[in-house]
Amino acid sequence: MPENRGGKPAEPAIVAANQAVRQRFPFDDTRDLDDARRGFLGTADENLVRAADGRVVWDLDAYGFLARDCPDTANPSLWRQSRLAADHGLFEVVPGVYQVRGFDLSNMTLVEGERGVFVIDPLLCAETAAAGLALYRAHRGDRPVSGVLYTHSHADHFGGVRGVVGDAEVAAGLPVIAPVGFLEHAVSENVYAGAAMNRRAAYMYGATLPKGERGQIGAGLGQTTSTGSVGLIPPTLDITHTGQTETVDGVRMVFQLTPGTEAPAELNIHFPDHAALCMAENATHNLHNLLTLRGAQVRDPRVWARYLTEAATLFGAASDIAFASHHWPVWGRDRVLTYLGEQRDLYAYLHDQTLRLLNQGLTAPEIAETIEMPPALERAWHTHGYYGSVSHNTKAVYQRYLGWFDGNPAHLWEHPPVAAARRYVEFMGGADEVVRRAQRSFAEGDFRWVVQVVHHVLFADPEHAGARRLQADALEQLGYGSENGTWRNFYLTGALELRHGAIGTPTSTVAPDLLAALTLDQLCDALAIRVDGPRSWDAAVTVRFELADGEPLTLRLRNGVLTHTAGTNPATAPDPDATFTLDEATLRAVLLGAVDPRDLATRASVTATGDPTKLAELLGYLSDPDPDFAIVTP
């Protein structure tokens, strides 16, 4: 995709706003630049990382343009952050601890042991992880992988595991370590709402945007997501409590569990022999998300702040360096403690002040516009909203405590978007008149108002050419002015889709390995959310599976609801219309769609009684998610 596809120059209001950013912050402070490049050992000779079919899944040179001066079409603070995050290669953190950075959204950390190397967070896809491991070996020798650790349950920290180890090594005893609850959360987050999250992630990370001064320049936390093969090898060892110690290949580790922070299952690690503290994704060089724009459960900033205090208390006096699974390390004990303290104060302040203001009657949008950060925190580059933002994080805190309703009965039963849009447009004199007035607001530099009002025109008349052009132009200007990388990506992807049509979903985390990791209980839940309720209101189907290697399982469809029950209690598992005797592997294949249910009764290994067509009838009520649903149009 060419760099300038659809991109227009920055409007005067955006140029002025970006120039003001240059005057506001200390761009002559080069400490982060020095830290980001410290310990550089080299990078890959081949710039393109490819999948087996030749498709490019990562381009190390895609962000070379960031070496130039910041243009008017980018916020200088975000440009600075992206330039730092785009540095790629192998870096020595301390002797024996290395990081591969810039090969994916996240970092892969490699800790040398007595005979091999221990891998922490093997990136998002197998291809980039394999390339990162090859880079490490090119500089440090062909050490075998002696263990793997996932710091938390987000795919960019486990999805590339098959690029560094395989099932055979794990079966032979290679440990795969993760925080307790990891598998449940990794699977449920990526499967239950996976289609919607992946579609929104295409906007959030801008993976299909052109890279360049008028396109994608980064996501704040890293540059973007790779587009290769996502996998999962289940953990073989759980970390169940803070203070738990483990030694793998001579590498001593002390763990701190931090559930409910950046992920529902997460941990920090102290390496006492290196005086090094791995903060996973709990302390990075930006304000993180309390509610990620791709969608997730709201995180708890109060708990997050407390765990940062605990990390400093437990490990601060014995840590000369802090590093994470994104960005670059912080060296020096005093600097580490200051860094952890400022990160702690960042989340605590957002939590406490949002609660203070909501208890004074302010709503979420009002709080987002009112709240101001302390000057000392604002001066620290690592507290800036490159990934999370003060605006959407305060709204997340409000949502966590009070939900979607702001208490005003006028908002209790509003019309849905299309119905409301048609009424708004009619009241405002028709689509053409709204667009005419919005063009004047655009000329005045009020781009927020333009996108808010033209949204109604698009939802009333999605094909209105003038509205599509104006909305795309206004979204683009908001992107140019955004300090937040994910906001920029959302704005520019919306503009791109209005101009050129849907871009689709470039990366899916609903991968075969994740589906295979579902328990039968989770698998049945995943099927239940696919039932077309209205179409199955009058359906009454019960199917039982007698498992050769487990308890009987009964699926029952009534009132548009698919329930499942283990055992044969008649109160919850009534007499079935059909019964199949089979093994769990065959059942999984049927429920995942790998085996046609109409053919199941003909298999020699399966015994069927009753009406075997009832299984196909039941599964016929399932609907498929839409991976490319519309976002900026109805």
Structure in words:
The protein has 634 residues and is an alpha+beta fold. An 8-stranded mixed beta sheet has the order 1-4-5-6-7-8-9-10, covered by helices on one side. Strands 11-12-13-14-15-16 form a 6-stranded mixed beta sheet, with helices on one face. Strand 15 and strand 16 (330-331) form a beta hairpin. Helix 7 (194-205) packs across helix 17 (485-500), helix 8 (301-315) runs antiparallel to helix 9 (333-358) and helix 14 (431-443) runs parallel beside helix 16.
Low-confidence stretches: none
Largest sheet: 8 strands, mixed
Which shape, going by the Cα principal axes?
globular
Order of strands in the sheet with the most strands? 1-4-5-6-7-8-9-10
* Residues in helices, as a percent range: 25-40%
Computed structural class: alpha+beta
- Which radius of gyration do the C-alpha atoms yield? 26 Å
Number of DSSP strand runs? 21
Q: What percentage of amino acids are in beta strands?
A: 5-15%
What is the structure about, briefly put?
38% of the residues lie in helices and 15% in strands.
Structure keywords:
15% strand, 634 residues, 21 strands, eight-stranded mixed beta sheet, 21 helices, six-stranded mixed beta sheet, alpha+beta, globular
Question: How does the SSE layout of this entry go?
Answer:
Blueprint: H1 12-24, H2 31-37, E1 40-42, E2 48-50, E3 56-59, H3 76-86, E4 89-94, E5 97-101, E6 108-112, E7 117-120, H4 126-140, E8 145-149, H5 167-171, E9 176-179, H6 182-191, H7 194-205, E10 237-239, E11 245-248, E12 251-257, E13 267-271, E14 276-278, H8 301-315, E15 321-323, E16 330-331, H9 333-358, H10 364-370, H11 375-379, H12 390-402, H13 417-427, H14 431-443, H15 447-460, H16 465-481, H17 485-500, H18 512-517, H19 520-528, E17 540-547, E18 553-558, E19 561-566, E20 578-582, H20 584-591, E21 607-610, H21 613-619
Parallel strand pairs: 7-8, 8-9, 9-10, 14-15, 17-20
Antiparallel strand pairs: 1-4, 2-3, 4-5, 5-6, 6-7, 11-12, 12-13, 13-14, 15-16, 17-18, 18-19, 20-21
